[in-house]
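F.,

This is the one I mentioned.
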């Protein structure tokens, strides 16, 4: 194995991009490598490359890609495309499950969290509502070190008793804890695990067979690696991760969490995008989609130029994930943009969404009247 040449710091080892408008796929391309590094060398601040023959290319629809796109591969085959750790894109699935529960009358948007899950004593004391969880206005901290606790019971006990640091409903602060509480609410009112709810309400109806928590070992050749996770830059010492959830709290909670843990492909996320844009089998009523995607958004972030580029400003909605993932829906043009990368391979770096924003701007300009498509 050898260290990377001095100065080589790509934004990601590899990426899969998919974009479309209505029923039309405009772009579906793979670039770079799903697996390139064996480890991260802290002494040299460089990734340590695997022998080149062990590098694994990014793939989409059965089409391979190395440093240069390879168009010689077989036709579309969703059984070969690269599977990614979605990180916080998981929150979008949890949100859709929550809205499905709203449709069924199992929860109320302004219902108190403690009315559904009375074990959340701090939420009861401060009157936190389901809406506040979905809009990140609960006042809860961004995260807690649940991975430091020895047992599942201790982790849940910390969640149950963690108070907000600002008055609920007064300010927005993005927090993973909101979706961990929401997970418990959904599981309590339905009597089913979040993994089963995601399957039954979203992935099975849409035919998303490569979207799930805790992917089986048989999928490993398709899965993009993430990080060489070690102290001091990471919260746990787990080595190079591939096929195991990157988020430390989701890992500590068994791999199924409301804020992180899902794995999927770009091709399958396009199925979800089309469904929400009204171009595929519906998973929600039209009025529910409007409720979820209209500003300020439930679970989804609306008009965020920092990662949407020029798609923002007309009601575009989407989300990003820490591992390098993002998704944007632009209802003004019935278009979508899915960008899945492994930006934390071999090690996490300061956040940089400039490439995501650039992709959003390129799509927005291509869709303007009088301009050619991508």
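My design for it:
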């Amino acid at each position: 194995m050898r260290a990377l040449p001095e100065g080589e710091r790509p934004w990601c080892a590899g990426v899969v991009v998919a974009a479309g408008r209505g029923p039309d796929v405009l772009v579906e391309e793979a670039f770079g490598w799903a697996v390139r590094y064996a480890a991260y060398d802290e002494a040299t601040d460089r990734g340590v490359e695997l022998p080149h023959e062990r590098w694994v290319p990014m793939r989409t629809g059965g089409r391979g890609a190395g440093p240069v796109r390879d168009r010689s591969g077989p036709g579309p085959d969703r059984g070969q495309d690269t599977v990614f750790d979605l990180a916080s894109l998981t929150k979008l699935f949890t949100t859709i499950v929550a809205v499905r529960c709203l449709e069924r009358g199992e929860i109320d948007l302004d219902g108190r969290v403690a009315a559904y899950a009375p074990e959340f004593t701090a939420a009861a004391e401060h009157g936190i509502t389901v809406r506040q969880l979905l809009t990140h206005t609960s006042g809860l901290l961004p995260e807690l070190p649940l991975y430091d606790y020895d047992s599942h019971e201790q982790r849940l006990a910390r969640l149950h008793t963690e108070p907000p640091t600002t008055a609920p409903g007064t300010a927005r602060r993005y927090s993973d804890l909101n979706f961990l509480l929401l997970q418990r609410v959904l599981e309590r009112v339905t009597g089913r695990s979040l993994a089963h709810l995601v399957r039954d309400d979203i992935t099975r109806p849409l035919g998303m067979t490569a979207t799930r928590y805790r992917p089986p070992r048989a999928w490993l050749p398709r899965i993009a690696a993430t990080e060489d996770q070690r102290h001091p830059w990471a919260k746990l010492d787990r080595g190079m991760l591939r096929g195991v959830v990157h988020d430390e709290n989701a890992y500590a909670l068994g791999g199924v969490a409301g804020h992180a843990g899902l794995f999927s492909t770009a091709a399958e996320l396009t199925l979800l995008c089309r469904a929400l844009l009204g171009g595929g089998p519906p998973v929600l009523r039209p009025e529910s989609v409007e409720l979820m995607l209209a500003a300020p958004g439930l679970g989804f972030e609306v008009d965020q130029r920092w990662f949407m580029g020029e798609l923002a400003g007309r009601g575009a909605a989407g989300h990003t994930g820490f591992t390098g993932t993002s998704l944007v829906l632009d209802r003004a043009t019935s278009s979508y943009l899915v960008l899945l990368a492994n930006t934390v391979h071999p090690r996490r770096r300061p956040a940089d969404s400039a490439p995501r924003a650039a992709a959003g701007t390129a799509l927005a300009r291509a869709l303007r009247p009088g301009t050619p498509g991508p």
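The mean pLDDT is 91.

Talk soon.
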